[in-house]
Design brief:
Layout: H1 4-10, H2 50-63, E1 70-74, H3 77-88, E2 94-98, H4 105-114, E3 118-122, E4 138-142, H5 154-163, E5 167-171, E6 189-193, E7 207-211, H6 214-227, H7 233-243, H8 246-264, E8 271-274, H9 284-290, E9 299-303, H10 307-316, E10 321-322, E11 332-335, E12 348-352, H11 358-372
Parallel strand pairs: 2-3, 2-4, 4-5, 5-6, 10-11
Antiparallel strand pairs: 1-7, 6-7, 8-9, 9-12, 11-12
Helix pairs in contact: 2-7, 3-6, 8-11, 10-11
């Protein structure tokens, strides 16, 4: 069996050809030569593109290495999320969302409700979404949740949803396909923002949805074509190029995140430290069963005493950028409450660990915590 790191390096590459690059460059084309009937793999730039094809094949191999999957890429993670939801839901349907998920989900809820779709919510922890599942058309899971880092049992929820006739989609952004494989755990869709850890360099926006069901993929693909939420060829090529280092980045980031989380638990001014890899974390036991060993993600969350304390801490950091998003090679942190939409304290910090050496990052965080004391 091919290991994840090897698969990530080789995924989606064409067969070797003499005098050709291993990964062909991006194809920039709005239209293609098309004599006769409008058939063939490439007809118009909003429908298909050879650069997307290679990237989609690569992501499919990572999300579902043992069974064929269909992947559709998008211009952003939110485009992928919207495509799955709006391609599958109709007026009168009910959908279950997490109430502690990504902070744009409330805006999505408002739009769904405006179309006559019932939206139910429940927390990620303790598989609470089971309690509001009856009669739903689709269950949306985010695990680990962002930014709270709670974990739910994908297999249990998927089995319960399917028994009730509901589809299941999992936001796999934080875990990445090297940390967790939702399709193997029974989900119908694995959806992610490729902006974050998948591509990992903080220089492009991208999203995707993977499924083993061709009909579901066709529906999502038609939605992409209809709304035009297509990825650019350059972004797609950069994303594919970045996949080669995914295993290296995920390993280094996960090791650094666990080391940092462990160090933070010893600080008296820090409370509520969360990381699924911490043995003391409420989600640890489930994460160990469900996620890949040692790949519990790059994000650590914790709470400082108040807003001013958190701002002083962030200003004192030198190896951590005060920026949003997560999963990049450079560590970032932010006071998450500044965006609104997340039910977190004013001093709540979401810190994304990059690929810096853990001992350097920990030293920088400790020094910034010392500097932040009033």
């Amino acid at each position: 069996m091919t290991a994840d790191g090897t698969r990530a390096v080789r995924a989606g590459l064409p067969e070797p050809a003499a005098h050709e690059p291993a990964l062909p460059g991006p194809v920039f084309a709005a239209h293609f030569h098309l004599p006769g009937e409008a058939t063939g793999p490439y007809t118009y730039g909003r429908d298909t593109n050879p650069t997307w094809t290679r990237l989609e094949a690569a992501v499919g191999e990572l999300e579902s290495p043992d069974e064929a999957a269909h992947t559709v890429t998008f211009a952003s993670g939110m485009a992928a999320i919207s495509a799955v939801l709006f391609s599958q839901l109709r007026t009168g349907d009910a959908v279950v969302l997490p109430d502690d998920g990504y902070q744009l989900l409330p805006a999505v809820r408002t739009r769904l409700e405006s179309y006559g779709i019932e939206v139910r919510t429940a927390p990620t922890a303790d598989d609470a979404q089971l309690d509001v599942l009856d009669g739903a058309r689709l269950l949306w899971i985010e695990t680990p949740s962002n930014p709270g880092l709670d974990v739910c049992d994908i297999r249990r929820l998927a089995d319960a949803a399917h028994a009730r006739g509901a589809l299941v989609a999992v936001d796999n952004t934080l875990a990445t396909p090297l940390g967790q494989r939702p399709l193997d755990l029974g989900a119908d869709f694995s959806v992610a923002s490729g902006t974050k850890a998948l591509t990992g360099h903080g220089d492009l926006l991208l999203g995707y949805a993977s499924t083993r069901d061709a009909a579901l993929a066709d529906g999502v693909r038609l939605w992409r074509k209809t709304v035009g939420a297509i990825p650019g060829p350059m972004e797609s090529w950069l994303a594919h190029r970045s996949l080669a280092t995914l295993a290296l980045r995920v390993r280094q980031q996960a090791e650094g995140a666990l080391a940092l989380a462990t160090a933070l638990t010893a600080r008296p001014e820090v409370t509520g430290v969360r990381h699924p890899g911490l043995p003391s974390d409420p989600s640890h036991a489930l994460a160990v069963r469900q996620m890949r060993p040692g790949r519990f993600g790059c994000v650590v969350s914790f709470v400082l005493p108040d807003r001013a304390y958190a701002e002083r801490f962030l200003a004192a950091l030198t190896l951590v950028d005060n920026a949003t998003s997560f999963g990049g090679v450079r560590s970032t942190a932010e006071r998450r409450a500044r965006w609104g939409g997340d039910d977190v304290p004013e001093g709540f910090i979401r810190l994304s660990v990059g690929i810096e050496e853990p001992q350097d990052l920990i030293a920088d965080v400790r020094r910034a915590l010392d500097a932040a004391r009033p």
